């Protein structure tokens, strides 16, 4: 082939590759505007799920999302893809296969003295799920592993971690939250309560809230920011093998998981969820607290969401276990609570009391 023709051919090929790439990017980018503004809850989805005998779960028009558009719902799904560099520096923990585990497990009944395990919170209109899943699991682990009753502050993490954790109410990285606990600690909820306690009903929350500012001061004057900090000592990922995830929860307490949310998940009411219909809406993070098997022999994970008790099964949901449904077994993260600061405070309180 003459050189000129070869160059021309190369240029033509380059252009076609660029064109294809661009088309793919457009297809993968945001949903078309008509869908973005339409309501997330659809009667057709409820009917489709509820009339399907093999779906294994029931749907309803959840009051939590009665006035939400697809765009607003997507904004809640605040898990951003973790930067590769960050992912690779985190240790991966797996647990030996020979560990005997019960066929049913529920952290709420395993540690009934730890009230935070069974709490259902509400992230409001902020894409802060990445922070909720982490802070809630860490609070539980303080009680389970150290016998310390504490509600930790989602707000501290959300407002003060900055770009290292992602983009606040516009989404973040679950594993970065656990790293923040090791390096900076997290204050108590009493010191820095969540900014959006109203849950914000429409109208009045549009445009979506900006991320709260990092103040580093307790709202209560008698509390010191520095003294309220609770730390982690380790942050790690857990191997995606279901047995390892179960062993971790059984031995150490709840973990944070991320998974892909489809349209039908907004309609979940009860049963063991698996994706049946609808498009991808985004990545979401929640707290995994147990597992079991239904009478029909279906294995499931048990999880606490933070969309209040009006959504789902009183705020909880079950999802199929063992098949990496919606990626639920793929991005499991956790950490270890530290005695730093808290043991000192306990002994100071003890001294104060005994003086
Ligand atoms: C019913 O649910 C099953 C399991 O999720 C799915 O494979 C099947 O395609 C669904 N059927 C219909 C008609 O949607
Ligand atoms: C949803 O919007 C309707 C009409 O705009 C209103 O009457 C209703 O109270 C709203 N529901 C919620 C839960 O905000
Ligand atoms: C935590 O608080 C609850 C309720 O106030 C109490 O019943 C429980 O015993 C406490 N647990 C620990 C470990 O102190």
UniProtKB/TrEMBL annotation:
Domain of life where this protein originates: Eukaryota
CDD domains referenced in this protein's UniProt entry, alphabetically: Peptidase_C1A_CathepsinB
EC number(s) recorded for this UniProt protein: 3.4.22.2
InterPro entries: Papain-like_cys_pep_sf, Pept_cys_AS, Pept_his_AS, Peptidase_C1A, Peptidase_C1A_C, Propeptide_C1A
Annotated signal peptide: 1-27
UniProt-listed GO biological process terms: proteolysis
SMART domains tied to this protein: Pept_C1
Keyword Transmembrane in record: no
GO MF annotations, alphabetized: cysteine-type endopeptidase activity
Alphabetized UniProt keyword annotations: Disulfide bond, Glycoprotein, Hydrolase, Protease, Signal, Thiol protease
Domain Peptidase C1A papain C-terminal: 101-336
UniProt keyword annotation of Glycoprotein present: yes
Sequence similarity: Belongs to the peptidase C1 family.
Designated name of the protein: Papain-family protein
Organism whose genome encodes this protein: Oldenlandia affinis (Blue diamond flower)
């Amino acid at each position: 082939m003459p050189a000129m023709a070869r160059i021309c051919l190369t240029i033509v090929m380059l252009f076609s590759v660029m064109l294809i790439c661009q088309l793919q990017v457009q297809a993968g980018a945001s949903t078309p505007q008509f869908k973005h503004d339409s309501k997330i809850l659809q009667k057709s989805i409820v009917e489709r799920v509820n009339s399907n005998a093999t779906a294994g779960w029931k749907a309803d028009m959840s009051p939590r999302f009665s006035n939400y558009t697809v765009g607003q719902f997507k904004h809640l799904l605040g898990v951003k893809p973790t930067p590769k560099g960050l992912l690779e520096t985190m240790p991966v923990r797996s647990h030996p296969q020979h560990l005997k585990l019960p066929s049913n497990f529920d952290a709420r009944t395993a540690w009934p003295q730890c009230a935070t395990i069974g709490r259902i919170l509400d992230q409001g209109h902020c894409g802060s799920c990445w922070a909720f899943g982490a802070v809630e699991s860490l609070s539980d682990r303080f009680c389970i592993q150290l016998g310390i009753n504490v509600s930790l502050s989602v707000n501290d993490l959300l407002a003060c971690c900055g770009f290292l954790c992602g983009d606040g109410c516009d989404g973040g990285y679950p594993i970065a939250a656990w790293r923040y606990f090791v390096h900076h600690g997290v204050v108590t909820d009493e010191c820095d309560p969540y900014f959006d306690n109203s849950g914000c009903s429409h109208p009045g929350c549009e445009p979506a809230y900006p991320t709260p500012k990092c103040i580093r001061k307790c709202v209560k004057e008698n509390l010191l920011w520095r003294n309220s900090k609770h730390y982690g000592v380790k942050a790690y990922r857990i191997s995606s093998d279901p047995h390892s995830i179960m062993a971790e929860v059984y031995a150490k307490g709840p973990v944070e998981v991320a998974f892909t949310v489809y349209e039908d998940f907004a309609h979940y009411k009860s049963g063991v969820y698996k994706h049946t219909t609808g498009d991808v809406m985004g990545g979401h993070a929640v707290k995994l607290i147990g597992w079991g098997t239904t009478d029909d022999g279906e294995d499931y994970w048990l999880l606490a969401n933070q969309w209040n008790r009006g959504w789902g099964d009183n705020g909880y949901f079950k999802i199929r276990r063992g098949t990496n449904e919606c990626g639920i077994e793929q991005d499991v993260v956790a950490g270890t609570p530290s005695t730093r600061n808290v043991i000192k405070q306990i002994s100071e309180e003890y001294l104060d009391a005994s003086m």
